[in-house]
């Protein structure tokens, strides 16, 4: 027996100015975030027309997966349309009985993995007895299909740096920060370190590398993983580093956190420091990444020994 569908499950993002505040309300539900903080974040989205690139990236991934999978590919989000509960309901209406779920996060940890398991369970519970069984595919931070696209994009980013500093460029890997308590209860940080080292080892040349963190939120008194990518670039500049490539190793596609925290803030910080810098692309629909998703589905089918 094989899966009769694949579900791509992601974070979601607004697709117009009127979507921004409802989207942020979904993201921060139950967290008592001050209104002024939400307004400040909303303003960032509005500078980009109220649109996050993540939904377009997910549509592109679904389109790329369909030719390499011989079953229907569905897509649902945690925080914006199409909501995962609505998608699971549509799957049930279409007669799907068992689906593999590809979550657009490569790592373990609560927000990267366990929270998506909660989303799946909640969606199935809302749909009721007719909901399909849904098996989340495992983390893939160490898979060649995840590592190799970053090797390619990091090499491409190096190539656009000025020739006189390119050879000495530092590779600054960045992933979403999490509270230290959450990090200590998982292998998330270690997996990010491992993936970063794997990419750095495969990039031509001998480039030093390090891991920093981004997109911190929450009360200031709660400690999170550090250093922040902007502060890290400042420390590198103080040590005489003249060039860097920022590698968004924590993301499989361009989230708003990539285009704002890295393209706007981190690259802006590097410019103010007099540091030549470029940002590597995320895997997106790189052929190796798309093939990897199909491989994960087939491996999970094989692990069941032909029967579920």
Task: Please tell me about this protein's structure.
The longest helix has 18 residues, at 110-127. The model has no long low-confidence stretch (mean pLDDT 96). This protein is of the alpha/beta class and 308 residues long. The protein contains twelve helices and eight strands. It has helices spanning 20-27, 35-46, 54-65, 84-93, 110-127, 144-159, 163-166, 180-184, 188-202, 229-238, 256-272, 287-303; strands at residues 5-10, 73-77, 98-103, 133-136, 170-176, 209-214, 243-247, 276-279. It folds into two domains: 5-139 and 287-303, Rossmann fold, CATH 3.40.50.1400; 144-279, 3-Layer(aba) Sandwich (Rossmann fold). Strand 7, helix 11 and strand 8 (276-279) form a beta-alpha-beta unit.
Give the gist of this structure.
The chain has helices spanning 20-27, 35-46, 54-65, 84-93, 110-127, 144-159, 163-166, 180-184, 188-202, 229-238, 256-272, 287-303, and strands spanning 5-10, 73-77, 98-103, 133-136, 170-176, 209-214, 243-247, 276-279. The chain is of the alpha/beta class and 308 residues long.
């Amino acid at each position: 027996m094989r899966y009769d569908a694949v579900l791509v499950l992601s974070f979601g993002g607004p697709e117009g100015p009127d979507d921004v505040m409802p989207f942020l309300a979904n993201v921060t539900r139950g967290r008592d975030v001050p209104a002024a903080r939400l307004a400040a974040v909303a303003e960032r989205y509005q500078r980009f027309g109220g649109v996050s690139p993540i939904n377009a990236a997910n549509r592109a991934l679904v389109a790329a997966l369909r030719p390499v999978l011989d079953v229907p590919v569905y897509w649902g989000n945690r925080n914006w349309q199409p909501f995962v509960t609505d998608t699971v309901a549509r799957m049930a209406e279409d007669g799907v009985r068992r689906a593999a779920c590809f979550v657009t996060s490569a790592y373990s940890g609560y927000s990267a993995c366990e929270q998506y398991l909660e989303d799946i369970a909640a969606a199935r519970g809302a749909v009721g007895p007719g909901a399909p069984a849904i098996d989340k595919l495992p983390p893939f931070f160490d898979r060649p299909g995840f590592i190799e696209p970053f090797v390619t994009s990091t090499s491409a980013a190096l190539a656009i740096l000025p020739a006189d500093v390119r050879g000495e460029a530092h590779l600054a890997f960045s992933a979403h920060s999490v509270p230290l308590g959450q990090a200590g209860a998982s292998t998330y940080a270690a997996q990010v370190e491992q993936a970063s080292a794997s990419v750095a080892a495969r990039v031509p040349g001998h480039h030093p590398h390090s891991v920093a963190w981004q997109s911190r939120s929450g009360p200031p008194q709660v400690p999170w993983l550090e250093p922040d990518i902007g502060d890290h670039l400042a420390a590198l500049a103080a040590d005489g580093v003249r060039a860097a490539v920022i590698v968004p190793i924590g993301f499989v596609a361009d989230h708003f956190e990539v285009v704002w925290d890295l393209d706007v803030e981190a690259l802006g910080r590097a410019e103010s420091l007099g540091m030549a810098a470029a940002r590597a692309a995320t895997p997106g629909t790189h052929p190796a990444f798309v093939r990897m998703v199909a491989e994960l589905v087939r491996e999970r089918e094989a692990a069941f020994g032909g029967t579920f």
